[in-house]
Design a protein that fits this description.
Length: 323
Amino acid sequence: MSENTALAKEKKSSLWKWQIGLAVFFLLFVTLAGGGIGYWANIQETPNPQATQAMMEMLVAIQEQFYLGKQALEAERYEEAKAHFEYVIRADNNFPEAKERLAEALIGLYTEPSSTPTPNLQITPTITPTLKVPDKAELLYQARALLKSGEWTLAVETLQTLRFFHPEYQLAEIDALLFIALYNRGMVYLAEGDLAGGIYDLERAARFSVLDEEAKNKQEWASFYLAGVSYWELDWRKAAYYFSLMVDEAPDFQDASGITAQERYQEAAWQYAEVLVKKADWCEAERYFKIALEHGGEAALEENLNNAAKMCEEMEDFEEEGD
């Protein structure tokens, strides 16, 4: 499939997907408002959040994961509950009750039942919980080994468990190891096209140490890319603007769609030029048609460019005559 075909298909499917997402949002808003306020607040801080279908889907997914986590916790499936609540916290660190529920899951996970006789010597023993606190030295050893083998996610989880049960243990080293794990996982996420996940992990890593220029640049490019996508088909001028901020330094930067920043910039510039043509703003249309061609636009755009240039020149001549 050609790059232009991929863009065309995305364009055709974007509108109806957005309409479905909007309908889902209004249907679920009442039930999600109570549990998803923290994440919704984060969405409101992004440019034109209604434009981002991925954010809408994430809102629904977070609420669903929290609900599944509660079910697993009640059924004493602690490992499963832990995974659900960690997903929620990663997506929204302030999600109501998520951290408390994760703590319950961890305690349950490291608690094993032990039989003790009751004072009245009944035949049926009373089951009382015995907290099985993981050994701090063993957890630290595991974390070091996981970092050495590049198992970033497992390393993060192990270090978080260590910090939960032993918050004062080897503070400086745990901070350093968390930085390494989060930094590397964030960079992997960005390379794989999970831009939101990469930005989040790098932000967390920055709490423990200073990011290098490569990480800062990629985090910034990811932010520009997501901002541009949030305006896709809703405001072509703003979409083109955000991709213009990164296209020279990172033309091949892309998200999970596989569409590069340069391809996005070319398409947004072209579409905005067409908007300007409808407004008879010929000189600006000429400029954006030229941008589209310079960044890989089809040769057929030359006709649009030439027509816009001709009309721009005629308008300028007319204005000069009027003066």
